[in-house]
Specification:
Length: 159
């Protein structure tokens, strides 16, 4: 029997497996050291810093432009700036300006009833119609749109 052909142990395979195990062990140790070093330098997560990083870049605010010099805006100015977008076309069920049939039951509420409804918002209409109008300016806008739609309201006092 020759030693190389009938050997129970193949020396080349043993060496190959020993190298694979040694290199794998070395890679494992290096990875663990790297992870440990990274964890040492890791700072705790600051929720406020995270919120600053993910905050929106900008925000959009829709509002009627303020009158120059702080003077009260007219009902027509408020209507053109905030109301016309929905009431001109009847968007989302808003009664169209000039549609006397649609406005008749609303006009029956009177100026105070319509003002209360407009301040709180109604159905799809946001509070104050999405504008920054004062109560007097909002009442003037209601008088303007109501009178265009068959009403006979007087301008509110305080103008």
């Amino acid at each position: 029997m020759s030693a190389t052909s009938n050997s129970e142990f193949d020396f080349k395979k043993i060496i190959a497996w020993a190298l694979v195990i040694a290199l794998g062990s070395i890679a494992f140790v290096v990875a663990m050291i790297s992870i440990a070093n990274t964890a040492k330098g890791h700072k705790p997560v600051d929720p406020e810093a995270v919120n600053l990083r993910i905050a929106p870049v900008a925000t959009v605010k829709i509002a009627a432009p303020a009158a120059a010099g702080g003077a009260a805006r007219s009902g027509e100015q408020i209507y053109q700036a905030a109301c016309t977008a929905c009431h001109q076309a009847g968007v989302a069920g808003a009664p169209k300006t000039g549609d006397k049939g649609a406005w008749a039951p609303r006009l029956a509420l009177g100026l105070n009833g319509l003002l209360k409804s407009a301040i709180a918002g109604k159905n799809a209409m946001p509070p104050r119609g999405g504008s920054d109008a004062s109560d007097t300016e909002l009442a003037s806008a209601i008088v303007y749109i109501a009178n265009q739609s068959g009403g006979k309201f007087k301008e509110p006092a305080g103008k």
